[in-house]
Design goal:
The complex is a heterodimer of chains A (292) and B (190). Chain A is globular and about 65 Å long. With 292 residues, chain A is an alpha/beta fold. With 190 residues, chain B is an all-alpha fold. The chains are: A alpha/beta (292), B mainly alpha (190). The interface between A and B is large, with 95 and 71 residues.
């Protein structure tokens, strides 16, 4: 088992048991009269039912994907372009810049970004193209170092991995922008990948990248920043495309199955929206009462 | 944490808060890892005198000066640390943020060029929304602000909600894959 994963699991278990013991100890100390609050919040039943439906459908499609093998997933232009972008950087002899933005590791968009980074690192290692990854968060940095190293190892070139290329910059939002812009202007990367959580800095980064003529592929879970990326970048992963990227790149049947499950959930939501519209037209409050 | 959302019991709330406290404590220690990496990378560049090493020297000096000032004279009112923050760091951050105005203009110029039918629709829509947000829009025609609001509240909001639903489903799906251990790249293995 990989050292990093083993350490993470041990740390997680230690934290879990520490919290558990602390909570049990706390419960034993307090009188039963102090244990106020019920064991279930009935006002959240609709959320619970919704989550259970989502989980059940996703579970079904994950196992369906595992059983059936490779499922069809439509082409995502931004992810198709990653290979070309890496090839371009190799031909030009220039580095590739990767940024996960301001997100911390607990954000799902950052985790999705790390999953894409693994595939990018694997491809980059085949051509020995430098992959520069300035980080806003030290935890993301530690994870990214491990992901890139693992990607290089999977490609069969662990000797090409340079830990100095995945580094911490600052926790100041605009300090981070200044540093990344500086790297772009000085090192002129041929390809910029902005995948993760971005805020006001998105346009500053993307426009600087545009000014140096880099091919830019971006993706974020912020709808406000998406518009900036669409204008300033060559390809943009919109909404769930960022989360579907790892399945698309790795072709893992179980991940592809979960993406299929998402599509069926979308169909379910569309049916609910249409039903809601029709019922509201006839003054029925039934669906609205289900989602107060 | 998911279970705690549905159980308002005091012990569960306590456990939840406990986990958050521990997360904060662990996070503070991870900053040391970041600072150690920052010093290592910049020192290496300065010692090997690679191209642009002067920038790394400035970065290292900034870190050391702030740490020394903070420890020597504190970080409160009328301290050199606060003066440096207010008169050097804050203006530099404001300068970077100000660049956004120029970049919005250049990005808008590229985005709104009427090269295709879609770009022309975008240009016209943006023109209506922008006019609707300023007094001159109302002076041109009283219905322009209403039209701008309609665009923002209906077509624009519908598109945003569509994207948000996709993001929500993607988040649930990715979280489930991570919880089940199907997605493990972020742990350093596939």
């Amino acid at each position: 088992m990989h050292k990093f994963q083993k350490r993470s699991q041990i740390l997680f278990l230690m934290l879990f048991f520490l919290c558990l013991f602390h909570s049990i100890a706390f419960c034993q100390k307090v009188d039963s009269k102090d244990l106020k609050g019920s064991w279930y919040d009935p006002t959240k039943t609709n959320v619970l039912v919704g989550i259970l439906i989502c989980i059940a459908l996703l579970f079904f499609f994950i196992f369906y994907g595992k059983k059936k093998g490779n499922l069809f997933i439509r082409e995502i232009a931004g992810l198709q372009a990653i290979d070309d972008a890496i090839g371009r950087a190799t031909e030009m002899g220039k580095p590739i810049l990767y940024s996960a933005g301001l997100g911390k590791m607990e954000r799902v968009a950052t985790m999705a970004s790390m999953n894409i980074l693994g595939s990018v690192a694997e491809k980059v290692a085949e051509y020995n193209t430098p992959l520069i990854f300035p980080n806003y968060d030290p935890v993301v940095m530690a994870v990214a170092q491990e992901v890139v190293k693992e990607g290089f190892t999977r490609a069969g070139h662990p000797e090409f991995y340079n830990p100095d290329n995945v580094f911490f910059v600052t926790q100041s939002q605009f300090g981070y922008v200044a540093a990344v812009d500086g790297i772009m202007v000085r090192q002129k990367p041929a390809t910029n990948l902005f995948l993760g959580t971005f805020e006001a800095e998105s346009l500053i980064l993307a426009e600087t990248g545009n000014s140096i003529g880099a091919i830019q592929i971006a993706g974020t879970d912020s709808t406000i920043q998406l518009s900036f990326f669409i204008v300033a970048c060559d390809y943009t992963l919109i909404g769930e495309e960022l989360f579907a990227a790892s399945g698309y790149l790795t072709k893992d049947p179980m991940v592809l199955g979960s993406i299929k499950g998402q599509d069926y959930l979308k169909i379910l939501i569309i049916i609910l929206v249409l039903a809601g519209g029709i019922l509201a037209t006839f003054n029925s409050e039934f669906l609205r009462m289900l989602f107060p | 944490m998911l279970v705690q959302f549905f159980i308002p019991h005091r012990s569960f709330i306590f456990a939840y808060e406990n986990v958050l406290d521990w997360m904060q404590i662990i996070y503070v220690f991870t900053l040391l890892v970041g600072v150690a990496n920052y010093i290592k990378i910049n020192s290496k560049k300065v010692s090997t005198k690679i191209k642009g090493w002067g920038y790394n020297l400035v970065a290292l000096s900034g870190l050391l000066v702030m740490v020394i000032l903070g420890f020597a004279q504190g970080t409160g009112e009328d301290t050199p640390f606060l003066w440096m923050f207010n008169h050097i760091q804050a203006p530099m951050q404001a300068t970077m943020f100000s660049l956004l105005a120029f970049f919005v203009a250049s990005a808008a110029y590229r985005g709104f060029r009427a090269r295709s039918k879609e770009a022309t629709i975008l240009l016209l829509t943006a023109a209506v929304v922008m006019l609707g947000r300023v007094p001159i829009g109302n002076m041109i025609h009283s219905s322009i602000p209403d039209l701008a609001n309609w665009i923002l509240n209906f077509p624009s909001m519908a598109a945003r909600r569509g994207i948000l639903i996709g993001i929500g489903l993607g988040t649930i799906s990715t979280s489930l894959r991570i919880i089940l251990g199907i997605e493990r790249t972020y742990l350093g293995r596939e």
